[in-house]
């Protein structure tokens, strides 16, 4: 009796297992749509002072033709920008190896061959192109060959125009602020219908301003039309070569030398009072094409000059203002150097050196700068501080602090007198380094543009199990079902036979 009950229980368990197993396999086994895996892209931002590598990712099915891109990782190349390797064959390419090797590890191997790899060189290479086009082409070809040696999908290694750099920066800003596309509560990406904001970029060798406008753009070289996420945008964009932070400082030094004459000691109104440093006339001042107009007919490039700071705000401002030309406008309105500019409108984001200058002013003075008046007051205070005060308040070394007064005056003149921001429009500028977890700059906008050319992958059709495996599993569970039913039938027949015998 006990054995018969055990057999019945075993058969019932087999029967239940078989039925449950069949249901689990059959019910989810319908064809379903699943999102495609991520795609990846790599952008090398080859700036005038250094190169940064950014790895981005986006869903492979994309959104209205443009990838929903986020930053995956970043790497900063050691050493100077690729333009600093002019005359040093092999140097530019080799400098990129550590970051490219990191990209090989960061991106899934299955995606390597589909990952677009691009290098965009900016104002440093634009300057090299002006003075030595042959060497500029050699450097670009060298880094191109290096990029092609990696298992990614090489797209291009190019010198970006100033306008393209500005436009890509504008795209980055508005993407990070979700002005193009936003994930809605309905579970899909939507156009939020927001106003775009302008972009203000201050690099090492150039500065860019880009914003959407409905005004007539009188110089067609300032017009750029973009299509992103199914929407059209009409932009004003302008890049000023030699107006980046590093080249401005060179030009200011060259102007001071021209006005004071070449002599062993130079007075610098923008340096902290009594601060001293040494420069060489060649490599530190006149070797750049940006200082050509101030270059003496004859000078010793190896001559060592002692530069002494005086911390004179007004003298500093006067000298900085002379770096700009505010006359000779052949259009209805201009910014400076005879360049057309429509009226600034709406909000702006200022990044790169703008952010660091604003941050230093805030830290050094505790003034929350939201107006031209507040900025002027902060700059005045900073220009009167000595080096020990500045280092104590910021914890930063001399090489950064010595230029804060000069660059702050430059930013003040550029924004207010150059771009015509005023007490009404200045508060609309936000100074940022990062937004939405990504670095603010032109690289993300460039990646969005490149992703527009990468074919989208359709949603994959998937089943719960591969078809062959699914069929085998079904067969096993059906077999178990038949065995269980057969066993129960045998038990039932044996029981009837014994009852008949009685």
TrEMBL record:
**Calcium listed as a keyword:** yes
Q: Name one GO biological process term.
A: nucleoside diphosphate catabolic process
List cellular component terms (GO): plasma membrane
What's the main place this protein lives? membrane
Enumerate the residues binding ATP: 204-208
Provide the GO MF annotations for this entry.
ATP binding; GDP phosphatase activity; ribonucleoside triphosphate phosphatase activity; UDP phosphatase activity
Entry's localization field: Membrane
What cofactor does this chain's UniProt record say it requires?
Ca(2+); Mg(2+)
Identify one Pfam family in the record. GDA1_CD39
Keyword terms? ATP-binding, Calcium, Disulfide bond, Glycoprotein, Hydrolase, Magnesium, Membrane, Nucleotide-binding, Transmembrane, Transmembrane helix
Residue ranges crossing the lipid bilayer per the database entry: 6-29, 467-492
User: What residues make up the catalytic site?
Assistant: 165
Q: Which Gene3D superfamilies match?
A: 3.30.420.40, Exopolyphosphatase. Domain 2 (3.30.420.150)
Question: Where on the tree of life does the source sit, at the highest rank?
Answer: Eukaryota
Tell me what topology the record assigns in the membrane: Multi-pass membrane protein
Q: Which family does it belong to?
A: Belongs to the GDA1/CD39 NTPase family.
Q: Know the name of this protein? A: Ectonucleoside triphosphate diphosphohydrolase 2-like
Instruction: Supply the source organism for this entry.
Output: Parambassis ranga (Indian glassy fish)
């Amino acid at each position: 009796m006990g054995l018969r009950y055990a057999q019945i229980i075993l058969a019932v368990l087999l029967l239940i297992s078989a039925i449950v197993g069949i249901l689990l396999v059959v019910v989810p086994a319908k064809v379903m749509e699943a999102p495609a895996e991520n795609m990846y892209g790599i952008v090398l931002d080859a700036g005038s002072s250094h190169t940064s590598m950014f790895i981005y990712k986006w869903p492979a099915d994309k959104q209205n033709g443009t990838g929903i891109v986020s930053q995956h990782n970043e790497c900063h190349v050691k050493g100077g920008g690729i333009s600093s390797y002019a005359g040093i064959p092999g140097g530019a390419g080799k400098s990129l190896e550590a970051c490219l090797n990191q990209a090989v590890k960061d991106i899934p191997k299955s995606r390597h061959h589909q990952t677009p790899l691009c290098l965009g060189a900016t104002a440093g290479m634009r300057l090299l192109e002006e003075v030595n086009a042959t060497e500029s082409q050699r450097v670009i070809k060298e880094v191109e060959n290096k990029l092609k040696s990696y298992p990614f999908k090489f797209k291009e290694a190019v010198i970006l125009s100033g306008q393209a750099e500005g436009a890509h920066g504008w795209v980055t800003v508005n993407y990070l602020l979700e002005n193009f596309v936003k994930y809605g509560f309905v579970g899909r990406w939507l156009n939020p219908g927001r106003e775009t904001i302008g972009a203000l970029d201050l690099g090492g060798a150039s500065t860019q301003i880009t914003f959407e406008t409905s005004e007539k753009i009188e110089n067609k070289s300032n017009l750029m039309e973009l299509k992103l996420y199914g929407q059209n945008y009409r932009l004003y964009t302008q890049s000023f070569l030699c107006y980046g932070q590093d080249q401005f400082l060179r030009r200011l030094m060259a102007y001071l030398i021209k006005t004071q004459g070449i002599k062993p000691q130079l007075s610098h109104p923008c340096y902290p009072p009594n601060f001293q440093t040494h420069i060489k006339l060649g490599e530190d001042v006149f070797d750049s094409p940006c200082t050509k107009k101030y270059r003496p007919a004859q000078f010793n490039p190896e001559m060592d000059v002692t530069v002494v700071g005086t911390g004179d705000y007004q003298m500093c401002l006067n000298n900085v203002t002379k770096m700009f030309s505010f006359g000779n406008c052949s259009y209805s309105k201009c910014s400076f150097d005879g360049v057309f500019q429509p009226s600034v409108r709406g909000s702006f984001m200022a990044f790169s050196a703008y952010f660091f200058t604003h941050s230093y002013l805030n830290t050094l003075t505790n003034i929350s700068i939201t107006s031209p008046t507040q900025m002027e007051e902060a700059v005045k205070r900073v220009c009167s501080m000595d080096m020990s005060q500045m280092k104590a308040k910021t914890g930063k070394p001399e090489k950064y602090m010595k230029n804060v007064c000069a660059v702050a005056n430059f930013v003040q003149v550029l924004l207010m007198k150059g771009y015509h921001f005023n007490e009404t429009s200045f508060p609309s500028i936000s100074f940022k380094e990062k937004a939405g977890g990504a670095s603010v700059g032109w690289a993300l906008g460039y990646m969005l543009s490149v992703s527009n050319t990468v074919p989208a992958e359709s949603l994959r059709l998937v089943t719960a199990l591969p078809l062959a495996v699914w069929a085998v599993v079904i067969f096993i569970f059906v077999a178990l079902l038949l065995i269980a039913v057969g066993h129960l039938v045998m038990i039932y027949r044996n029981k009837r036979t014994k009852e008949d015998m009685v």
